[in-house]
Structures are given as structure tokens and as C-alpha cells.
């Protein structure tokens, strides 16, 4: 007998919860904010909106389904199952945070603060949850297949991201590495820079776009469902030993960018999740390209 679907509600701690954890009481948190020219009322209102949205979505889950919740900080320890329907209740960035831990499960994005969130990935209201859950669990349910980027190291470590993957020094030093296409006899270049960014069409509204604009790049930004990635080297430094000729490019399906580390330590993380990063050292190689896994975002 096949298992009934499980609705996994993904959320994050609210600013109000964080203030209470730090200051102990509502009154002390209110005093702290007022001393900095802010009111706790707006923070408490967003907290209530988030809690109400979670309650509404939980109530919309069909009675025969199982149900679970996971907070953003615990995503790297949560085991998602193939039959899960993932419901992200919060901001757009929370969808990206969850995406790297999924393997094809449908995702429903619920916006808890319309007008404040862009709503690029959290496209729906809590009142839509019941219909969206049924659609997500139905075979052939309508979904956008959003392209993801992956990094695979030579020691089999693997990292997925929905927006972008960053490779660079762990602090404010310079990363040294050798960069080039992952193809036989392809030219490579030794570089010293503040890092390399490889991004998707979903990430083209954020960090990737800022680099693209800064460079006045002639490359065409991809759409979220396009099987294309763009990559940029940040602040490459020219010297007798390092070059700056390979600082931007495009990757299609089946193409890879290869980076070999030539410094003590390089970190690799996706979508701003620095606490869940790969660490590479001298001589290690990492390859970056389009992942075979995409994010199924219910429309």
C-alpha cells in the first residue's frame, strides 16, 4: 500500500520570536526597539500574520495526509521523503533555502506578507492552500521546472542551489585557483580573485543581476526555466602569475566550469547558506553546471 502524501510546512523564526529570545519579554523588546526609533507593533503584526498563515495552511491539509513542520535552521537535518509536498510559508528566499535539500518534490509557495515580499517564488495566499495541495499531489499537476545549479567536488561532495553558488575565500583574503571549461585540452587560467559566482535564471533577479549590470555584460540573462547559467569572476587581479581573460561566460546543459584550488582554503555555498558549505583545499577540483534536479514550483 502506498503512503498518503505528507505536507511539510517550511517556515522560519520571526523577527518577533528572535527579539523575545534575546530580550526575554515583550516589554523589554519594545523598549529596545523604541530606543532605536522603531515600534514593536509592526514586528508583532508580521509575527501574527505569519502564525495565522501557518495555521491556515495546516488546516487546509487533507485529513488523510500526514503533516510535519521544519524551521529554516533545521533544513540540513530534515529528511524529505519522495511522497512529500513541500509548502514554504514565508518569503521568496525561504524557497531557495529549501530547494537544495529536495529531489523533485513539488513545492507550494505561500506569501505571508503580500506587498512586502516580491512574490517571485511565494506566489499564493494561504486561502489557496487546499486547492494547491491537491494539484501538487496530482499526477501531471501544473508546475514550473526551475533550473538549479550544482557543484560537484572530486571527493564526491555535492551542493545544489536555486539562485547561485559562490566559490571563494572564507574571509576577506584572495582566493587562488585555476579556472576553465571542463573539457579535454580546454584552456585554463590561473586567477586571484574574491571569488566566482555561478547563477541561474531564478537568481537573475538578485546577486547575479548586480554583477551582470556592473559589468555591462552583453550576455543575456536567463529566465528561471531556461537551461542556462551565467558565471562571473569577482574582482580578478592581474599579475605576472594570474590572468583576467576568463571572467564571465555562459553554461548550457552538459557544459561544466572547472575550478582547481591553488590556495589553503576555498568555501563553496549556495543561496547564502554559509553554514552549509563545502570546504576545499590545495589541489582539489570542483565542477559547476546545470543540475539534473530542478525545482518543481506549483503554479
Helices, strands, pairings?
Elements lengths: L5 E6 L3 H9 L2 H9 L5 H21 L5 E6 L12 E7 L1 H8 L6 E6 L17 H9 L5 E4 L2 E5 L4 E4 L2 E5 L6 E7 L7 E5 L1 E5 L7 H9 L12 E7 L13 E5 L3 E6 L4 E5 L7 E3 L4 E6 L4 E4 L1
Parallel strand pairs: 1-2, 1-3, 3-4, 4-18
Antiparallel strand pairs: 5-18, 6-7, 6-17, 8-11, 8-15, 9-10, 9-14, 11-12, 12-13, 14-17, 15-16
Helix pairs in contact: 1-2
Number of strands: 18
Shape: globular
Into which percent range does the helicity of residues fall?
A: 10-25%
Could you tell me the radius of gyration in angstroms? Answer: 21 Å
Q: How do the strands of the widest beta sheet line up side by side?
A: 2-1-3-4-18-5
Total DSSP helices = 6
Strand percentage lies at 25-35%
Q: Poorly predicted ranges (pLDDT <50, ≥5 residues)?
A: none
Topology as a string of helices (H) and strands (E): EHHHEEHEHEEEEEEEHEEEEEEE
Counting helices, strands and paired strands, the structural category is alpha+beta
Largest sheet: 6 strands, mixed
What is the typical, i.e. mean, pLDDT? 94
Q: Tell me the distance between the termini.
A: 29 Å
